[in-house]
Each structure stands twice: as C-alpha cells, then as structure tokens.
Amino acid sequence: MHLHGRLLLLAGISMLGSNAVHAQTKRSEDAQEPHSVTVPQTQTPRKTMERIRVHADPRSYASDRSSVGDKTPTTYLQQTQTANVVTHQVIEDMSPQTMEDVAKYVPGISIGNNFGGTQDDLMKRGFGAVDDGSILRDGIRMPIGRNFQLATTDRVEVLKGPASLFYGMQEPGGVINVITKRPRQTWGGEIGTTWSSLGGGYGHFDVGGPVSKSGFSFRLIGHYKNENYWRNFGSNKETLLAPSLRYAKGRFEGNVSYEWGKYDNTLDRGAVFSNGHPVSGPEHRLDEVWAASFGQRHLLAATAQYRLADHDRVRVSGGWNHDNYHDRQADPSAYNAVSGILTRRYRSNTGTIRANSYSSIDYISDHTLWGMKHDLVIGADYENRRQDQGAFIDGPRMGGFYPSAPLYGGLQPVGPVNNSNSDWRQTINSASGYLKDNIHLGHGLILAPGLRYQWFHINYGGQRPYVQTTDSSYTKPLPFVALVYQIGQHVSLYGDYSQSFTPNQISTGSVLAGGYKPTQGRQFEAGARFQNRFLTSDIAIYNIHKKNVQQTAGLDENGNTIQRLAGLVGSKGLEWSVTGRISRHWNILGNYAYTYARILRDTPEDKGKIVANVAKHTGGGYLTYQTTLPYLHTDMRIGAGARYVSRRPGDLNNTFYMPGYATVDAFASWKTGHLLGHQTSLQVNAVNIANKAYFTSSAGTPLRVSWGQGRTVHVGVDVSL
User: Fold this and answer.
1) Per-10-residue mean pLDDT for the chain, 721 residues long?
2) pTM of the shown model
C-alpha cells in the first residue's frame, strides 16, 4: 500500500473510531454486529477494497451511518439526502412512549391530527397525514395507529424529503423507519418494571441467544402496560409479545420476526376553542369514561440475504400486518359561546380491518468499473394496502354539557347505524421497479442517479347499499439525482432533486369534496455536513412543491370531517442538527428548523394560508453528563433538555391559532454490576417538569384540539439476567 494510502487509512480509522454507530449497549448488545467499513484508496482505484472492522462508542448520541437512504449502511459524510438518526442511547435515556416523543429529537417535524392521541400523524417538512404510510417498521409500511414500541425498538432513522425512490407511495416530506432489535448472538436477557406518577405503569422482559451451533439464534420480548391517563380519567392498556429468529451460515442470512399486540387506549378529543381561546383547561376532559380505541394487531416480517460474491448480494424482504380496530367517541359537534353549552354525540367504528402486505427483491453490489466505484441497488417491489370498515354508529346530538363545569354520564354509547358512513372499503395495489447508483467519481465527488417506475391502482367506495367512487390506475416515472462533494476528512456538501407520487386516501368518517386525484411532489435540497471523532452536525435548505394536497376543511352538517384537494402547496425551510460527545463526560443533542409551508394555489379565500398544524419555528436541545461513581462501581447518567414549538394555525382557513410553547424534560440513571450479582439499573424520567399547559395539534376544527401531556414521572428498575 502506498504511504499516502496508509496515512489516509489510519486517519479514517481515527475519525470513525469514536463515533456512534448502530452498535448496541448491553441492553440490546447483540442486535447487530460491528460494521465493516470500506476505506478506498486515493490513488488509482483497485478492484479490491480493504475492509476494516471498527468499534464505535455505543453510548454517544451520534451515529456515523444510516441505511434509510440507500437500503444499505452509508457513512455519514457520503449520504445523498438528509437523514437523522435517533440512536439507541437516546431512546434508552429519554424513554419515549410514542412517535411524537421520538420526534422531539428530530428537526422539522410537527404533530398533525392524531385522532385524540390514538394515532401517529407526523408532518415532515410541512407534509403528512394520519394515513400517509410514512411510518415504517424495518422498511415495511405500517397501518394507522401507534407504531412505536419502546420494548422492541433499537433505533429510529428519518429520511427527509421525497422517499419514493425506495419506499414507493409516499408524501414529499419523508419517511420514518423504526428499526427493531434483532436476535441476540450471545445468551442474555433482562426483566424490568416501571412505575408511573399517574398510577400504574408497565413491565417487560427480553431474553435470547444462540439456539445451537447450527447458526440459529432467537429473541423473545414481552411487554405489559396498564397506566392511568394523565387527565382526570381514563387509562392506557397494552399487551405485546414479539419473538424473532435468525439463521446465519456461510453466505446466507435470514431473519423472521412476529409481533402480537392488544391495545385499549384513551381517545381524548381534547379542547374546544371559541374566539381563538380554549373554553376550558386541561384538568377536565370533555369526553366520557367509555371513550377509547381498542383492538389487536399482528406484524410479520422476514428477510433473506445471500452473498453471491464478496461484492454482490441478493436480498428478499417481505412483511404483513393486520390491525382489527374499534373505537368509541364522545364527539363534539357544536359549541354555543353565549350559553356555554357543548353539544356532543356518540360515534363508533364498530370494526375496521387495516392490513398491509409488502415484498421486494434487491440486488446490491459495490464494484469498480472504468476507474470508478459504484454502490448499486437494483430492485422491484409489490404492495397491497387494504382498509375495510364495518358499521359506523352515529348517535343523536345531545346538549346540556358545560365544559366549564362538566358533569359526566349524560351521553350514552348507543345510537343507530349511519348507512352513508358504513362499509367503506379502500384497496391500493402497487408495483414498481427502481435503481440507484452511487458513483464515486474521485476527488471526493459522488454522483447518485436513480429512477423508480411507479404503478398503482386504487379502488374506493362504501355506504349501504355499496357505491363505488374511485376505480383508477396511475403510472409515473420518478427520477432522483444527487451530488456529494467530500472536502477532506470532516466536511461534505450535498444537493439532490427527487419526486413523490401517491394516492390521496380518505380516512374513515370523512368525506371528499370535489373530484379525486393522486398527489405528486418534488424537492430541491442542498446542505453541508460535519463529522469529527466526537460530533456530527448538518444543515440543509430545501424547497418542496406538492400538487393535489389533501386538506381538512372543517365538518359537514352530519359532523363528518370534510377533506378536499388544494391545487398547490409549497414548503421551504432550513434545518440544523448537532449530535454527539463534546467531552468524555458530556453528550449533546440539538436541533432547529424553520418551516414555511403555505397554500400557493387554491380558492381565493385559502390562497396564501399557512398549512394547519405546521409551526414555523421548532427546536430543542438536550445535555447529558455521564460518570462512574466509586460506590459499587456505578455508572451514572443525568440529563435535561427543552423543546420549543412556535404558534401554528389550527385549521385550513387560519381562523384560530394554537399558541407556542416550550417544555422541559429530564432524566437520571444509575447502573451497577455489583448488586445482587446482576447488572441492575435504576432510571427516573420526568416529562414536562413545569407542568406546562399547551396544545400539540388540531383535527382541522376548533372543536377538536389536542392537549399536550402534563407533568409525568416514570421510575424504572431493570435487572440483567
């Protein structure tokens, strides 16, 4: 090896050696093996590349690589799009309970209509909807509902901007991939319980290891939760069981996982606004004790990979999920500001099946051709999405309820079937082929062209008797191109152009005003990244246009949510983040985003309006201190941080705004290996320490505005087996 090449190789090892990668802490130590890092020569490229195993700091908040943008691990400075990683250490320290909690640590994300706190609706760069399919589990699209599980999650990767190249029918804001824990390679486990200041709590177990010398290993995770709701009544209950199995031998590796969950969660319609202000505080709910969403969910995922040669492999992936969902709603339909009376009614989805199935095959290679290294992915996928609703109960409107002095029990969970809102069925089939080639041109330049050819067919209809409203097919080529310029060892510049294409989906209990069209978008993005031995940081600017945007436009005379398509919506902004270690004892996490999302072309009364629920300014920071105490050789970590969200409109016409807010969270943890002969940890997490009253989002109407969670403290004890 040339002297210059050796020096560059040593510098590369030094640069990567202390950065956080996807490695696990002991809590999920063997979810993934150490990464192989390919370090190319700066002289004339050779056909063979040197591969070096590096062990990064598993306790850092930074990650030096991500797989979400390329379907294969790509080093931080060479990524072609903006990707944010919430590492395992961040998840372990902050103990997020929902995707909304995870989003605190990612710039440019606002909370949308979360259906009374029961569903994920995260708006990335100003775009998103409750059923946009942007939440993935191990690369597979998830149905509506809550899709983050603390017990099973290893890390979360967020790809910003249009992600249709590899993930198909998507909004132009991005996708969020929840990566789960893999089977353990060595025997181990843990059992733990957590107490909540609200009353109740949750517990879990996690065991696994190699089955035999034949190459099989397994993991079994269980979780049970029964925790009081943070407001004056209600509770959240959940049971989960998640086995997984891995087989690796020679050139072959296969993984299969299954998750069964049963849930019964509080459905809280939140607050009612009148004249721009809430008519009551967070102390008393406007619902009834029976308001809830409940059901059972099944998830099955599998991957099989065969290495054809040192630089070529084939991977087959597949997944299926099925959610049998029900709800009971104490739905507000009108408020009289003079009398102070809120009119409500009972509404219920008596049974909705939400099911997705997905399969893909990918050829992945890295070769040197014509003096240039190529990281190539060629693949095809097929997807089926189905939502079948049963009978929809719509009770009579009942008055006599005073939000300022609520008396419960006046609204009973009974009512007739609403034939116009029953039996709605939606089926979407999609098939596509795609390719992407990261071409290393030399001198730090990477050119990454890509193309997806997307086809989908949507069939939608409902009512009793059944009426079909949509039966259409659409096709579109989706180009992608990016350029990365790495300046030395610590800085890179990048820019990309990408497109999105997806059907507009009508949620249960909603009606579409006007004709149906699919939505499509495009993005220009440019940014810069920095990485040294301890820190990663990036800054990006972007401009997104999207046609035929589905907007919530209030309620009709029957109380159904009106959805219609805006002609053109634009979003432009800036995002910045920094993560990692600033010294041996201190970890930092910081971010800021400016997001200006508004309607560019629509009806005269709506043109120029700000997109509902999207805050112009969001940001936050978290600082953590770690040290070793002499008593029982205890590792201690303490940290605190704040999150700020500026005011944002609550509806399409910007008739009212939810005020800005800032909340403060903190945690402390102690781990020792000398207590009772096992590694034992004690952790305290406090959310919203100041008990700030604030609003997270609205459902596009002043009658349904969601409160943010009040002060909550969790105290947990874990014992390693």
Assistant:
1) 37 35 37 37 36 53 93 94 95 94 92 88 88 86 86 95 88 91 93 96 96 91 97 96 96 96 95 95 95 95 95 96 95 94 96 93 94 95 93 94 94 94 92 97 96 93 88 92 96 96 69 69 96 94 88 65 77 97 94 96 86 96 93 90 96 94 97 80 97 94 95 96 84
2) 0.88
Distance separating alpha carbons of residues 90 and 82, to the nearest angstrom: 19
DSSP label of 661: E
Whether the CB-CB separation of 587 and 624 falls below 8 Å is answered with yes
CA 47 – CA 50 distance, rounded (Å): 10
Token pair in block for residue 319: 């997944």
100 sits in which H/E element: helix 99-102
- Is residue 329 within 8 Å of 347, Cβ to Cβ? yes
For 27, phi then psi, to 5°, come to: -65, -30
The DSSP letter of residue 182 is: P
Rounded CA separation 185/120 (Å) = 33
In whole angstroms, give the CA distance from residue 16 to residue 29. Answer: 20
In the block, tokens 């939505």 appear at 519
Widest CA span in the chain? 85
For residues 624 and 577, what is the distance between their CA atoms, to the nearest angstrom? 16
The strand order across the sheet containing 140-141 reads 83-86, 153-160, 174-180, 135-137, 140-141
The torsion region of residue 629 among left (phi > 0), alpha (psi -120 to 50) and beta comes to beta
Query: Distance between CA 109 and CA 101 in Å, rounded?
Result: 11
